[in-house]
Amino acid sequence: MSLKKIEDLNRILTELKIGSILIKRKRNGEKYSRRFYLDEHEDFISYYQSEKIFAQSRRYYIREIDEVRTGFHTLTFGELLKQQIVHSDDEKLAFSIFYNNYRDELHLMANDEQTRYKWVLGLQYLIDLYTTKGQGHIIHDTNWILSHLRFGDKDKSNTITKPECQQLLADSLNIELPEDVFEKLFQETDKNGEGILTPDEFINFFHVLARRIDLYEIMQKYVKNANEQTIETICMNINELLYFLRTVQNQNIITYTSKQFNEDFTVQPITMYKQVQELINKFEPNIELQEKGLLSLDGFRNLLLFEDFSLMKPWCSRRPYHDMTRPLNDYYINASHNTYLFDSQVSGDSNPEAYNRALRSGCRVVEMDCYDGDDGQPIVTHKFTFVKPCSFESIIRYIEPNLFKASPYPVILSIENHCSIIQQKEIARILKQILGNQLITAPITTKNSSVLPSPEDLKHKVLIRSVKIPSTTTTSKLLQDEDIDENNIFLNQLNKIVKHDLSDLFVFFESMAFRESDSIKNLYLGSHSPSLSERELKQVCRSNPIGLIKQTRKCLLRMYPDGLRQDSSNPNPIDAWNIGIQIVALNYQSDDHMMELCYGKFIDNGGCGYVLKPYYLIDIEKSKFNPFDYLKESSIILSKDINERPQRLILTIISGQFICRSNEKLDDISDPYVIISTHGILCDQQIKKTKFIENNGFNPIWNETFQFDIYFPQMCLVRFDVYDYDIFSHDDQLAYFCLPMTTMQTGYRHIHLKATDHDSTYSTLFVHVAIENK
C-alpha cells in the first residue's frame, strides 16, 4: 500500500472518529437519525444515543462484521423501495452492515455520497486489517494490550493497582497466578515501588507474563552454549536457524511471483543462508540483532506464529492444487441443506443472508424449496412449518454478487420444485434475468458424452439441479416415483428426451429418489443425481457398499439429514464421504462438531469447495475398495491397487496461548484440556485427550504425547478440540481446528484455533508433529 493511500485512510479514520449523521432504517419504515462514530481505539462503531431515559447505544465490533454492502441489495431496502419509502435515487447513499455470521443487519443512509464513501472505505479497511491480525500481531499491539488495562482500571486513573491487576488477570486474561509468582512479577515491573503500574509498566508486565518458556527450552536444544544464555539473551545465529528449519522442521517457504496475494507463488525448500537472513529480517524486532544475523526469543516466536509456519501447509489452503479437470463426480463438493434457514427446521425466516454466509464459507451446493406464492411469484420456505417465506427472486438477486467470491468453481442450485407450471416459468425467467451468462442453459460438450464436465470447464457457472416434471408418464417419472414397479416395460425408454415444465430452463442435474435395485441403478445417467437420507445410507452400507460406490462413478449422489432433525443438527459426514458420496448436504446454521468436520474437509484445495476423491474411490472397478473391510487395526492388509501408505502420526500437545473463555461462563477462569480425534475409515477413528490445567487459559502447558496409526491418510481428518473442564456441569467447548492429515506440516507448529462458530480467534495450540511410514 502506497504512503499516500495510508495517509488518506488515516485521515478518513480520523473523520469517522469525529462522527457523522447517518439514518438508521428498518423494514417497517421506521427511521432514526443518529451521529455514528468510530471508537478512538478502532475496536467498534456506535452512535450517540437519544435523550430517552435508560436508552443505551449499541456497539458494532469490527471483529464481528462479516460484510459491508452498498446500495439497496438487501431485503430491508428492497421492501422500503417496494413501498416507495425510499427511492431509486437514494441508492447511492445506502449501505448495510452484516454481523454475527450474517444473522444481524444494520441498514444506514448517509446524507451525501462522500460520507457513505468514507464509512464504507474505512470500515472495509478495518475489517481487512482485523482478518490479517493474529496472535503474532496483537502481542506487539500496544493498543490491544492497553485495552486490558482499560478493562481493569475501575477508577479510570489510567493506571492499575495491584488488586486491580490481580483481578484483571482473572477477568480479562483468563489466568490465576500463584500469589508468590504474581508478587514477583508485579514487583519486577513496578519501577517506582508504589504498588501501581503505569501504561508503560503494564505493557512490560504483559510482555513478561506472555514470555514463552516452551520456546526458550526448544531454542536451548539448538544453540551453542545454551546454558549460558538466559531467556532474555538467548539467540539463534544463521547456521543454527538453518539447521533447525531444514532438519527439525523440514520447512519449505512460499515465494510470491505476483503482487496478488495467494495467486501465483512457488514452494521452495530452505537451503541458503540468504533465505534465512530474509526470515531474520522479517521476524526479528531488534534491528541490531538483525544486522548480526541473530534471532531472539521474540523473533523465534514471531516466526513460528506466522501462518506459513503453522500446522497446515499454506499451499494447500491458499489456492486450488488438485487436478480440476476431472469429471464432477470425481470430487467431494461442499454442500448445504435447506440453506435458507438460520435457525431450526420449523421456525425463523427464509433469508438470503443465510445463503451468503454459506457461499462465502466455500459452499458450492445450495438448496431452495420452492412453492407457489400468493402474488403469483414463487417463494422459498419450509412447507408445513412456521418458517416465514422469502420471495425466490429476492434470494437470487441478493446472493448473485457472492456466488463466486470464495471460489471460481461452479455453484449448483438444488431446487426442490413444488410450484405450478405458471410459477415454474417465473423461476426460469428470474434465473435467466439475474444470472445471465453465468447460468448454464445447454449441455456442455465433452469428448465422451457420458462423462460429466469438470470444475475447470464450469468456472463461474451456475448449474440447476431439480426434478424434471414430464408431461406424460416416462421412465424419468418412474425413477422419481416412490411406488415403482422395477419390471415396468417403460424402463427401456430412459434415454428418451423428456419435456419438463420449467419453461426452457436447462436442468443440468435431474434430482430423483435413490433406488437400490440393480435394474434401476444400471439405468442411471451422468445427468441424474439421486438423493438418499442418512437412514437410507446406513441401510445400503450394510447391504451393498461397493454397489453404492459404483453408482458414484456414474453420477452425483446426495445425502441429506433425516427429517427428524428438526433442531438442524447434522449427521456424521464421514460415513457418506467414506463411501464416495459427493454431495453431503449439512445444516450450515448449526455450529456443531459435524460442521467442524465439513470445514476441515474443505479447508483443503484452497477452500474452493471441491476436493478430489482418492484414486481407489474413483476407480472402484480396479481397487474393489470397501471401507467396511477395514474395521480392526490388527487384521488390515491393503491391496496393491489401493494407493495408500499407512502412517504413524505422533503428536505432542505442548502448550496453549490465549485460550478463549466459554460464552456460557464468562466469569470463570478456564481449566483447559485438549481432545485429539482422527476421522476417516473406521479403522482410523480414534480419540485421545490431555489432562486439564487448572485456572490457566492464558498459557497452559501440557507436554503430552499421543500416537495414532493411520491406514488411510488420504481420507483422514485430524481435529483438535479445546474444552473447559467443569466438575459440576458439562464441559464447554472453547475452540477447535480441523484439517486433512495429508496437509499437516511436521516439526514444531502452532495451530490457529477457530471459535465454535468458526470465527477466527487469537487462541493457539503449540504442538510437535512427527509422521512416520509404517
UniProtKB/TrEMBL annotation:
PROSITE patterns: C2, EF_HAND_1, EF_HAND_2, PH_DOMAIN, PIPLC_X_DOMAIN, PIPLC_Y_DOMAIN. InterPro entries: C2_dom, C2_domain_sf, EF-hand-dom_pair, EF_Hand_1_Ca_BS, EF_hand_dom, PH-like_dom_sf, PH_domain, PI-PLC_fam. It catalyses: a 1,2-diacyl-sn-glycero-3-phospho-(1D-myo-inositol-4,5-bisphosphate) + H2O = 1D-myo-inositol 1,4,5-trisphosphate + a 1,2-diacyl-sn-glycerol + H(+). Its cofactor is Ca(2+). The keyword Lipid metabolism applies. Keywords: Calcium, Hydrolase, Lipid degradation, Lipid metabolism, Transducer. Residues 630-755 form the C2 domain. Residues 502-617 form the PI-PLC Y-box domain. It holds the Pfam family C2. One of its GO terms (biological process) is intracellular signal transduction. It comes from the Eukaryota. Residues 14-128 form the PH domain. It is an enzyme of class 3 (hydrolase). One of its GO terms (molecular function) is phosphatidylinositol-4,5-bisphosphate phospholipase C activity. SUPFAM superfamilies: C2 domain (Calcium/lipid-binding domain, CaLB) (SSF49562), EF-hand (SSF47473), PH domain-like (SSF50729), PLC-like phosphodiesterases (SSF51695). Residues 177-212 form the EF-hand domain. Its EC number is 3.1.4.11. This is Phosphoinositide phospholipase C.
